[in-house]
Amino acid sequence: MKFNNLLAIVLAAGLIFIRYKFTIPVLNVGDGVQFATLITEVPKEKYGKCQLVFNKMVVTSSGLCKYRVGDEILIKGVVSKGDRGIEIKADDVSYNKTPWYGTVLREILQARGLVEAKVKEKLPEPEAGLLLGITLGVKNALPRDFYDKLVKTGTIHVAVVSGYNISLILSALLPVFGVIKKRVVRLIILSVSLLLYATVVGFNPPVIRAMVMGIISFIGLVTGRQREALRVLLISCFFILFAIPSYLTDISFQLSFGASFGMLVFYNKFKNLLRLDLLGLEDGFYGSLSSQVVVLPLISFYFGRVSLVSLISNLLSLWVIAPATILGFALFVLMYVPLVSNIMTFIVYILLNYFVLINNFLADISYSKIEVKIGLIGLGVYYILLLGGLTMWKGENTND
């Protein structure tokens, strides 16, 4: 990585931090708040009251449950300290309106609900929950015991929609773009397709990052001004954080960006340095190792543990996610064609069952993880040394 590029990253990070400090309100316990929000998921009932997560804040009120996805509501309440951080105890919740995009969102999520029910009819658990997680981003779809095992093996990131799923969709759409001559039409199809998918799975940070990155990459492709993938990643990250500064402290965004950054920067370096022969599994090993170099300190900082089998589990099991995701989408389309859907269900089950068996086995190994928590100073020192080392590492990398 050239020094000029590193300097640009530092300056951009400083600008984003300044914007974050001046745009994110500081809420103290006891403060009164009032705001409007669109309901994008069904409020959950807990201890006789309903909860709704908005901008990393939990809104609690007995009156939330009567509203539906797509409704815009007005909330008045008081800031308090909850189990998940800032909590708003709303003493006044009122209906404002249902905008047209709220109605569209409601219809999309209702259709998604029908697909979820059908998948659970055709597949057992945890395979059904795993398929719904990697394709539709259904939260809490996995049984708790299997979720904990994925945490132990360091593969929990595949159980939810991420930028990887977006890249699969983009790859699947590329043949369609080849037969369309007008660049503007191709860009519109891409943007609408990605926007529709992001609406279905939810606008979480990794999906937004990947969606913006995909659109920027395609603009470079169709205009003949292709940029390096790393530069596109950094540009998309800058625009997302500048537009939505709260993502700066979002754990999923940090992990998603860190994994992508590690893949782009370290993959070729490790490949050229190690030159391993792993019977065709080298690419998976280099990719997993490249991501882990960047995200492991973050995992330790936030969760206080590090998986000792993550490299092995990622190497042995992640290769099934791409075919399972693509076949899963095909299964949704052909769900009501009996013979075809039965055959596809069987293939998807075999792939996901293999993933389940590998991770169950590795998670049951004693000492599959260790409890270690790196502090904020240690985290900063690690990344300073990592970036400094990149400026001096002369290993070949097409993205440098």
From TrEMBL:
Alphabetized InterPro entries for the sequence: ComEC_N, Competence_DNA_uptake
Keywords: Cell membrane, Membrane, Transmembrane, Transmembrane helix
The UniProt record lists the keyword Protease: no
Compartment(s) of residence: Cell membrane
Residue stretches spanning the membrane: 156-177, 184-201, 207-223, 230-248, 284-303, 315-337, 343-362, 374-393
Residues covered by the ComEC/Rec2-related protein domain: 134-394
Listed Pfam families: Competence (PF03772)
Superkingdom to which the source organism belongs: Bacteria
Predominant localisation class: membrane
Gene Ontology CC annotation, any one: plasma membrane
Membrane-related topology note: Multi-pass membrane protein
Identification of the protein by name: ComEC/Rec2-related protein domain-containing protein
Source organism of this protein record: candidate division WWE3 bacterium CG08_land_8_20_14_0_20_40_13
